[in-house]
Amino acid sequence: MPDLVFTFTLTPTLVLALAVTALVYDAMLIALGILVVRRLRRPAFARVPARRSALARG
Fold first, then answer.
1. C-alpha torsion angle, residues 35, 36, 40, 43 (rounded to 10)
2. What is the pTM of this model?
């Protein structure tokens, strides 16, 4: 019985710790995804008007 009480008292803290780590991990993944998307999209958007303006001028 003391083993069951020990596990029952530990589970809320373990669940909270797992929830916090999952939220932090998800936030890190979302931040990394946003940074990667921004780095991939900026050169593409920067190159397209430059090519169009060069073609329009030439």
1. 30
2. 0.48
